[in-house]
Every structure is written in structure tokens, then in C-alpha cells.
């Protein structure tokens, strides 16, 4: 689990990132979770955008993605979800 200080740090880091995934009409599926898991291994911190045509609630999408990818849900702001997962091979982010 992340502490409040670590979440603040990650939110600041994520501020400049652009969403690299979009959850739309199909919702959360196994393929999306697999791709997000791979992206997290490379980048550690990513943003996911929830589109207007997504049938699921954005909070449910955030929880489903973080559980599926075994990542930390840093923040849900507007229709954007910020996820963090420590990389095994190429650690770039040093948490406070």
C-alpha cells in the first residue's frame, strides 16, 4: 500500500503524462488488463482515460484495472485514472 506522501509524489509525477489507454464501450477486458500490465512494467506510472461511451462507472473501472494489473490506484480525477506499479526490471521512480 502507498502512503499519502507517496501518492502525492506520484500524482505530481503523473501530472505531465498523457493517457496511453482508453476504456470505451467494451469496458475492462482481459486484453486491456494484459496491455496495461505490460505498460506498467515499462513505465511504472500511467494514465488511463475513461471515454464517455463507457458503460461502467469510472470508480469501478479504476478498481478493476488496479486489481487486474496488480497495480496501485493512485488517483481518479475526472475521467482519468492514474495507476502505479513498481517495475521488476527497470525501476525509474524512487518513492519518498
Automatic annotation (TrEMBL):
Record domain CRM: where: 1-96
Keywords: RNA-binding
A Pfam family it matches: CRS1_YhbY
Gene Ontology molecular function, alphabetical: RNA binding
Signal sequence interval, chain numbering: none
Database matches in PANTHER family: RNA-BINDING PROTEIN YHBY
NCBIfam families: RNA_bind_YhbY
Protein name: RNA-binding protein
Lineage: Bacteria, Bacillati, Bacillota, Bacilli, Bacillales
